Amino acid sequence: MTIAPKSTFVLNHRHLLGIEGLSAAEISGLLDLGEEFVALNRQVEKKQVSLRGRTQINLFFEVSTRTQSSFELAGKRLGADVMNMSTSSSSMRKGETLIDTAITLNAMHPDILVVRHHASGAVELLASKLDCSVINAGDGAHEHPTQALLDALTIRRNKGRIEGLTVAICGDILHSRVARSNIMLLNIMGARVRVVAPSTLLPPGIERFGVDVARDMREGLNGADIVMMLRLQRERMNGSFVPSVSEYFHYWGLDEKKLAYAKPDALVMHPGPMNRGVEIDSIVADGAQSLIREQVEMGVAIRMAVLEALSRNLPNA
Amino acid sequence: MMLNGPRPILFANARIVDPSRDLDIVGDLLIADGVIREAKKGIGTAGVPEGTDVVECHGKVIAPGLVDMRAFIGEPGAGHRETFASASQAAAAGGVTTVICQPDTSPAIDDPATVDFVLRRARDTAIVHIHPMAALTKGLEGKEMTEIGLLKAAGAVAFTDGDKSITNAQVMRRALTYARDFDALIVHQTEDPDLIGDGVMNEGEFAARLGLLGVPKAAETVMLERDIRMVALTNGRYHAASLTCAESLQVLGRAKHAGLKVTASASINHLTLNENDVGSYRTFFKVSPPLRAEDDRKALVEALGKGLIDVIMSDHNPQDVETKRLPFAEAEAGAIGLETMLSAGLRLVHNGEIELITLLRAMSTRPAELLGLPGGTLKAGAPADLIVIDMDVPWIVDPNELKSKCKNTPFDEARMTGRVVRTIVSGRTVYEYV
């Protein structure tokens, strides 16, 4: 028999396009619900019925392994009919515009659309043309709300709180939607956020995001409770934004020596996929302070929570 | 090893000129154990350590050893033009105690291993200090920035693509931004290669009469203006490698007035020569950027007097006979300068165009400050890198006497007044004029 979550939290929004616009209470509601799904996901019988009859389409314009598969698993565990559409096989490749794709999909009456797109703002544009709920699974360098939520859940489970913690987000802040969503969420929840990166990987104006900015790891990691590493894309490694992998790793890669600047009980996170030996040393990635594998588990739970809480607000729910 | 070290020296009754303290007095200076003990009036022979050599200076000038911020040395790859050994001999004979070599070698000095090679090779073969600038972009291609952090840690004192300009403004922006995190100085040749085109000398009437293609001053000012905008955007630390014309000085003045971290060099050639010296296609006067008009030269000297131009460098660029004995347009640009820089500069002093202390500041104190090097001062505790100058001795530049492997000097057979007569590096005398 299935045990439904006890939380009756409803997310009173039609879409989840970003962390921006969420309140601390809403974030806590999602984390509480996610917490229950963690437990349910560890049972043999994982199937829920709350999304029975609902259609969920995962529309990924950018390749993704963990985000797409965890959304798929989350939808299926909640009983939805889940369809994956990737751009390689879709008519977008044949020249169809984003708006036309939206109109086409709308005619299929999905209830929830999960979208990832390489252009910032594209998910919001789609949402404005659709009747269903839209969840942003990452748009350009703008937002990736479910990643920030799963990171928050991971932190809360391990540290018991988010408020008052010092979180250092390190690496390619400039191109990172994960960084932007996390900065917002952590600020809303009362954490102190630092960003640590070479100046070439910091967006101008970042100091007005409510963060402290450090250019070196010793300063940036000093006293941190959480060290969150970001992926550096291969095309940015060799001379365009940073000179080389070896220099980047030397100054900004997380190894045991740099991790020692943080608190002794500091925990290490990474949204994946990791470049071992670029932004993070294997010894740290696989070490006792690493939460990286737990983040993946939280990913499924938090996406179930988002789907569940949004669907409770759908028409005829 | 101090047992074999040089004995302490007291320089008595010298004119001590120390730009780092705005000091120009008659006094004594004591060096021992490779450092300056003190420099002041009336140390006398009483208070000096036993075994001190006393040198009676008869009012000759003692100044910090010169720091030449821009000299091409052929190692690695062009040892036939100049080696660390030959360049350092030339430097010592010119009063230059620190030479900053350029990275446009073969291979380019663009990785930490090559910096290491240069430092070890210089240590083993040179008689003055040599520090390399490293390439700003890999292979000097103007595309991808080098490992600025690791190169600086290895000993590179600044970053430059030598006499090449970086045309891609985005590359320049990112390099300035990235270098800022390491407080690294970017030194840039400000010449738009498209505007240079096939030009070989200053654009104007004189070039037209010679039938030579000119290089407009705008080639320099356009690039300098762009760079200044990039510095304003990034707050990086920037040094214009070689300014030549009055228009550039206006741009530089505005940038400095705005508080930007911008400094600039002028070569000794542009401060003492002009386009007319090219005469009848004399290739030893072909330099890059080209010699400009007399008005530009005067403007440069005036800017030097005001401190607008920070640094005088030799732009030492040895070229052998095969690359110079060619029609003007086909000859290589470049002139040697390590040995003649000071004496050529003294012409400006003797003519009353600038003060001696101003000249010496631009040749020692300022470059040392910009590069974070310990020289350029006679303060107590500073390394004993210093020179003795006889302001009045007449001499003629004889190419056969020059230490450099190449003899392409624009001061060939020139009559000079005043020169270095003794050069001391880390307390050791490395050159004496007899």
Read across the widest sheet of chain A, the strand sequence of neighbours is 7-6-5-8-9
Overall pLDDT level of chain B: 96
Task: Say what oligomer this is.
Answer: heterodimer
Percentage beta strand of chain A: 5-15%
Secondary-structure-based class of chain A equals alpha/beta
User: Tally the helices of chain B: what do you get?
Assistant: 13
Distance between the termini of chain B: 29 Å
The parts of chain A where pLDDT drops under 50 for at least 5 residues are: none
**Strand-pairing-aware structural class of chain B:** alpha/beta
Largest sheet data of chain A? 5 strands, parallel
Summary, kept brief:
The complex is a heterodimer of chains A (317) and B (434). Chain A has 317 residues and is an alpha/beta fold. Chain A has helices at residues 24-41, 66-77, 98-106, 122-127, 145-159, 177-188, 217-221, 245-252, 256-259, 282-285, 292-311, and strands at residues 55-60, 81-86, 112-117, 133-139, 166-170, 192-196, 212-214, 226-229, 267-269.
